[in-house]
Design brief:
- This protein is an alpha+beta fold.
- Helices cover 39% and strands 13% of the residues.
- The protein is built from six helices and five strands.
- It has a five-stranded mixed β-sheet with strand order 2-1-5-3-4, sandwiched between helices.
- The longest helix is centred in the C-terminal third of the chain and has 17 residues.
- The mean pLDDT is 97.
- Bound molecules: FE2/S2 (inorganic) cluster (2 copies).
- One FE2/S2 (inorganic) cluster binds next to loops.
Length: 166
């Protein structure tokens, strides 16, 4: 049976077997660059995407189980943000991506995808999170370079930007 998935606002026919991890389809068929392969065991978060706004680990999600859920990858975050904030036009970068740049939170950059996806999930639900709420929410997204303090500052800075945008 043919599989179609919805990714970043588009329908995509998939040729892979239904048991294939969504991550492989995103990388190999859709040729996206955001999600990363890290552990492959749902333990690091580098492969994370949003499914109807909820973070999932695409390395352990069979593409055949995605169904009608709307998948958003790092590439689709600005458009999703524009929809959430009812902006006329999507920004070039999601505020959290901009904050990562401003705070120089990326060292090797390997965790950047998952940290941004997870942080964006939080800010959509809770635009003014406390430090404790950020810590709890981001738990489980590993940064092998140990940039956690800068990731924290990035999320706090993005929350300020989002608050200013109303
Ligand atoms: S690659 Fe998916 S959680 Fe590590
Ligand atoms: S910046 Fe290297 S893993 Fe986080």
């Amino acid at each position: 049976m043919a599989i179609n998935i919805k990714v970043n606002g588009h329908d995509w026919p998939v040729s892979a077997d239904p048991d294939t991890p969504l991550l492989y389809v995103l990388l190999n068929e859709l040729e996206l660059k955001g999600p990363r392969f890290g552990c492959g065991l749902a333990q690091c978060g580098s492969c994370s995407v949003l499914a109807d706004g909820v973070e999932i680990r695409s390395c352990q999600t069979p593409v055949g189980e995605v169904g009608n859920r709307k998948i958003t990858t790092l590439e689709g975050l600005p458009e999703l943000y524009a929809q959430q904030k009812k902006l006329a036009k999507a920004p070039e970068l999601h505020p959290l991506s901009q904050a990562f740049l401003d705070q120089q939170a990326m060292h090797c950059g390997y965790c950047y995808n998952g940290q941004t996806i997870k942080g964006a999930e939080l800010l959509a639900k809770n635009p003014k999170p406390t430090e404790a709420q950020i810590r709890e929410h981001m738990n489980g997204h590993l940064c092998r370079c140990g940039t956690y303090p800068r990731i924290m500052k990035s999320i706090q800075a993005a929350a300020e930007t989002i608050a200013k945008e109303g």
